[in-house]
User: Fold these one by one.
Assistant:
Number 1:
Amino acid sequence: MVEIDWPSYARVYDHFSSEEYAPLVHDFYGWILDRLDEREIEPATIIEIGCGTGLFAAKLAEWYPDATLHLADKNAPMLDVARARLAPTQAEPDAEAETQGGAARLRFHETDADRFLASLPDGGADAVVFCRSWYLVADPPAAARAALRALRPGGMLFLYDPLTTYDVPAVETFFTVREPARWPLFRAALLDFNAGVAAGRYRLYSRDELTALWTAAGGAVGTYESHAPVGNAHRMCVEKR
Ligand SMILES: C[S@@+](CC[C@H](N)C(=O)[O-])C[C@H]1O[C@@H](n2cnc3c(N)ncnc32)[C@H](O)[C@@H]1O
């Protein structure tokens, strides 16, 4: 397949996103906190695109208990896990109602990333996050413009994305031994990601490409870090001028 089977992947997603298996993803959470602290930003409104199972949202809810979190994801099984994780602080379970306003601090949006970004009001957010989700936006220039438009001046955008496709044979033996029951679904997701990249459905970016794209959209590119060759990921922050 050229698209990841997200409903199937949702069944093992948290397991393979643990600190043991995905330490750099967890490091990204703290990195964002540090960047916001440096700028003395105490965000009141945060938007996460492709929030998945709510792993980062749970951290945000803990760090910024008074903030409103807009959590957007296209796949209900992912959002279902996020809702269950965040249930104690969740006020509105219905996706339609949540998009219409109200007092909920956690707002779930079951929607496509590009469409959701295009629908956002101007200047309402202090931070926008793409954690392992920038690669899947369909129209990157338009999505970048929309994400920056959604930020207030001085607001910050953060992204963390894979650098290359995954070398599945390199981890096959390890996970076959360690995770015999769960590995087939994770393996399928990695192979589907690779096929999606080959088909042009998912995009991988160099530092220069990201910088050019976000600068053209009107952002001021800030810290950039690549985890290569230790990890297959890079991260960047962009400030709304
Ligand atoms: C790799 S996961 C990342 C989840 C989370 N941000 C994390 O790092 O744990 C990508 C997420 O994007 C969602 N997704 C896939 N295509 C999407 C689209 N077109 N619009 C919005 N979300 C999408 C998937 O359902 C999945 O939850």
Number 2:
Amino acid sequence: MIVIQNVTKTFGTGASALIDVSLQIDKGEFVFLVGPSGSGKTTLLRMLIRDVLPTQGSIIVNDWDIVKLPSSKVPHLRKKIGVVFQDLKLLTDRTIGENIMLPLEMAQMGHREAMNRVEEILEQVGIASHKDKFPIQLSGGELQRTAIARALVFSPDILLADEPTGNLDMATSWEIVKVLQDINKTGTTVVMATHNTDIVNSLLKRIVTLEKGKLVRDDKRKDQVDKTTKEKDTTKDEGK
Ligand SMILES: Nc1ncnc2c1ncn2[C@@H]1O[C@H](COP(=O)(O)OP(=O)(O)OP(=O)(O)O)[C@@H](O)[C@H]1O
Ligand SMILES: [Mg+2]
């Protein structure tokens, strides 16, 4: 569960990226975060992994008080919250498998266990055959899947995806959204920042809208309000 209360972020330059934002996201939700460029979407996501601290307000993620969390606990937090960054941040001199292996190695997981985990996660996102290729050899959609796989290696409770369909054509964008929906179906909370209005308007998901740093709308769609109809709604989504 994510609880953001009265959060304001003013950067040193004086720019206010977020202004008095309050938002609660329950476990297992799928939320679209929308708004014009510069409205604060990335800043909001970065705060959830303590990449940016709020100037005012409080953020609770699961049982962690993000503002008070000691730096020594940040690596643990980042295992439980997976992030796909807007610019992916893949290492070009390592293979797809090695890119995903890296966080596991840093966490000192044994080699065999880490290898198994990498294969399992690549399979899950549908790029098992690309394990030994380098990022330059993959398409935009495959690179996005790689970044999603890396974000999922520690089976996080929450997955944050920042503009995951940014440079993709419509068909590939839908494939990526399907991957995220499948992850969400396993119980992982998914927050996706996006400009893709076709996708946002086609799915019956919650839509949180930011404008100039303020939360201006929070549309809880029917499937979120009435969980009993969720199965039916999800089936309807599939054909889109
Ligand atoms: N490190 C920073 N220093 C100063 N200003 C920043 C910093 N990061 C973001 N900002 C400013 O905060 C505002 C919100 O930026 P943010 O990147 O969160 O927007 P966004 O909604 O993600 O935009 P986009 O859709 O283009 O990705 C912008 O005005 C931006 O210039
Ligand atoms: Mg952004």
